[in-house]
Design a protein that fits this description.
Blueprint lengths: L1 E9 L3 H19 L2 E6 L4 H7 L5 H7 L4 E6 L5 H7 L4 E7 L12 H4 L3 E7 L9 E6 L2 E6 L5 H17 L3 E6 L9 H9 L6 E6 H10 L6 E4 L1 H15 L6 E5 L5 E5 L16 H14 L2 H16 L2 E2 L10 E2 L2 H9 L1
Parallel strand pairs: 1-2, 1-3, 3-12, 5-10, 8-9, 8-10, 13-14
Antiparallel strand pairs: 4-5, 4-11, 6-7, 11-12
The chain binds 1,4-dihydronicotinamide adenine dinucleotide and magnesium ion (MG).
Length: 339
């Protein structure tokens, strides 16, 4: 078996966490006996400087026919185009607590123990892709972005979410804002799709209340389905719940199962270049990639290594190590994972 991936490091801590993740991937490939070829692609500001475009044709050609894209982070340009180009509509963002990090949560341990939420975010439509402009009239300068969803776009992400809920604990919470945005009837459309999933309980929830509930009582959730904007915001709450934004990874899939794998954080300019970024978010994304490939043992191997190293007390700076815990940088954490 052999796989080819495209690594797109991007900017800021992107290259640091992608390099770290590739080391881990290469090691499990060796241990599990599959070959892994890595090509490097460009996106965003660095692509603009090198190729004159945020999302250059060379990157598209590399990604075509590959088995997955491992992405770091960019500050501007390219990423929305990449997601749209491959129709990566289904963004999976698991929010799970690692046992040994329970006390790193912003919440009390009993509120967070065993936390296992899957946020599913629609990724290629909604307000990030609607018509937008700045203009001015007699009242002054203005700007607008349009939150537009075709019903079929809501229905297809709903079916993915229902399927995931069915495979998990059978509960799907739907984030919506129908009191203010009644023309985006997420509740009705999801409920209609849910007739094909009689064993899933659909729970519509106003997104503002949902944000509060995630903080007050996160253990009540199983799968949360959200539009592009709402899912973006809600999943960062997940970072606070599990102890650091740097821990969370995501997979963005299209209908063929082809995917883009990235942490949910950005370029972290405040710590970029210092070699101290937490690589576990991107590594978590790579675990999702391995699972998508059906390489279950390789995925489990990485998860086990992560749990072992964290249980031993090793922490990157974002997890503010205290007491018995040991501060490590990115490279040291990777060496520990590889042991
Ligand atoms: P951010 O996610 O880059 O950082 C937020 C905070 O979390 C910072 O204090 C940062 O140091 C910390 N942090 C994030 N990831 C970390 C990691 N792996 N290890 C340790 N600490 C970590 O969000 P921010 O500051 O709002 O955005 C910075 C830039 O990133 C902006 O230009 C934004 O547009 C871009 N961005 C890019 C994304 C992407 O490429 N997918 C996603 C989110 C933001
Ligand atoms: Mg975000």
């Amino acid at each position: 078996q052999s796989y080819r991936i495209v690594a797109i490091p991007g900017e800021g801590i992107g290259p640091e966490v992608v390099e770290a993740s590739l080391k881990v991937l290469q090691q499990v490939a060796k241990l599990e006996g599959f070959a892994l070829q890595v090509d490097y692609g460009w996106l965003g500001k660095t692509a603009l400087e090198k190729f004159g475009s945020y999302f250059p044709q060379t990157t598209i050609e590399l990604c075509n026919g590959s088995d997955g894209i491992v992405f770091g982070a960019v500050t501007q340009g390219g990423l929305l185009e990449l997601r749209k180009h491959y129709d990566f509509f289904c963004n999976l963002r698991p929010i799970t607590i690692v046992d040994s990090l329970v006390h790193k949560s912003s919440l009390r341990p009993e509120k967070i123990k065993g936390l296992d939420i899957l946020v599913i975010r629609e990724l290629v439509s909604g307000i990030y892709f609607g018509s937008a402009a700045r203009g001015s009239d007699e009242k002054g300068a203005y700007g607008y972005h349009t939150m537009l969803y075709y019903d079929h776009e809501i229905r297809r992400i709903a079916r993915q979410a229902l399927q995931k809920a069915q495979q998990r604990r059978g509960k799907l919470t739907v984030a919506h804002k129908e009191n203010a945005l009644p023309n985006l009837p997420w509740t009705r459309l999801v409920q209609e799709e849910a007739t094909a999933f009689p064993d899933v309980v659909v729970e519509p929830m106003l997104v503002d209340n949902l944000a509060m509930q995630m903080v007050m009582n996160p253990q009540r959730f199983d799968v949360i389905l959200a539009s592009n904007l709402f899912g973006d915001i809600l999943s960062d709450i997940g970072g606070a719940l599990v102890g650091s934004l740097g821990l969370l990874g995501s997979a963005s899939l299209n209908a063929d199962g082809f995917g883009l794998y990235e942490a949910i954080h950005g370029t972290a300019p405040d710590i970029a270049g210092k070699g101290i970024a937490n690589p576990l978010g991107t590594i978590g994304a790579c675990v999702l990639m391995l699972e998508q490939w059906g390489e279950k043992r390789a995925a489990q191997r990485i998860m086990a290594a992560q749990d072992r190293v964290l249980a031993q007390g090793y922490r990157t700076a974002d997890l503010s190590p205290q007491g018995e815990e040991i501060l490590v940088n990115t490279e040291q954490l990777i060496q520990l994972l590889l042991e």
